[in-house]
Amino acid sequence: MSALLKIRAERDRMSAIERRIADFVLDNAQLLRDYSSQQLANALGISQSSVVKFCQKLGFKGYPDLKYSVGEAIARADNGEDTRDTGAPPAPPPDAGMELWLRKSQAEEETRSINPPELLEAVVAALLGASAGGKVFIIGLGEDDIPARAIALRLSLLGILTVHNFDTAHMTASVSAAGPGDVLLVFSEHGKQPALCQIGRLFRERGGTVVTITRHNSNPLRAHADLSLLVSAHDDRAHIEPLLYRSALQHLLDRMFVRLCESGHMARLQATMERIQPMLEG
């Protein structure tokens, strides 16, 4: 993972001072080579030791290591922004569609980097365990119900018994039938709904496995999870950030679905689709 990507991915988990440093680095990456750690600290009105601790927390030996890594990331980026040395005319600004595609790609890459393969495999293993006689409970409130409903349908196509609900009272009642081997998927972008935390706690008391899907930040819901899938999507524009979140989330769920298909459910999926197809054509 590049230095800039690592900073973006970890930003939501940083302290207020660390976020100030992160934002400065992200906004002034091209100029960072001209700053010493003391100059950076002076520009932000913080101590030099805060800058050093920020670098070390991200896994760098110190500020020079961070600065070198940021410079490498800029050098590798083929974005055509710096054309002064070649004499070429400046590249035209990307259109809105291209910029959105680039931002979505970046959010998907960040999300992929903070959900290592072993975490995804653990979630897939839990779902496969539930498919062997158990159930998968799925809940999301408001807009979070959209991906919850979609994954419930996909799991059903694989022959996995799902209990999908968007009402916390009904789901609380359903959880009384849960037991060891069952899985609860909880979709909550911000992870702050007390009712979902209560459902997660009850589910774990029943011996089930709780999987949460939230933003990559500290939130109460993650404290009740056995496994946490995280989504990283950041943008200062209020109308763009939700689009990045949905795109990165969908890509994460698609990866999970593909792994389930490749783990022995492909034949069941094909058989189910063959039964459904005549209904769609009728």
UniProtKB/TrEMBL annotation:
<keyword id="KW-0804">Transcription</keyword>
<dbReference type="InterPro" id="IPR009057">
    <property type="entry name" value="Homeodomain-like_sf"/>
</dbReference>
<dbReference type="InterPro" id="IPR000281">
    <property type="entry name" value="HTH_RpiR"/>
</dbReference>
<feature type="domain" description="SIS">
    <location>
        <begin position="124"/>
        <end position="262"/>
    </location>
</feature>
<dbReference type="InterPro" id="IPR047640">
    <property type="entry name" value="RpiR-like"/>
</dbReference>
<protein>
    <submittedName>
        <fullName>MurR/RpiR family transcriptional regulator</fullName>
    </submittedName>
</protein>
<feature type="domain" description="HTH rpiR-type">
    <location>
        <begin position="1"/>
        <end position="77"/>
    </location>
</feature>
<dbReference type="Pfam" id="PF01418">
    <property type="entry name" value="HTH_6"/>
</dbReference>
<dbReference type="InterPro" id="IPR035472">
    <property type="entry name" value="RpiR-like_SIS"/>
</dbReference>
<keyword id="KW-0805">Transcription regulation</keyword>
<dbReference type="InterPro" id="IPR001347">
    <property type="entry name" value="SIS_dom"/>
</dbReference>
<dbReference type="InterPro" id="IPR036388">
    <property type="entry name" value="WH-like_DNA-bd_sf"/>
</dbReference>
<dbReference type="Pfam" id="PF01380">
    <property type="entry name" value="SIS"/>
</dbReference>
<dbReference type="InterPro" id="IPR046348">
    <property type="entry name" value="SIS_dom_sf"/>
</dbReference>
<keyword id="KW-0238">DNA-binding</keyword>
<feature type="region of interest" description="Disordered">
    <location>
        <begin position="77"/>
        <end position="96"/>
    </location>
</feature>
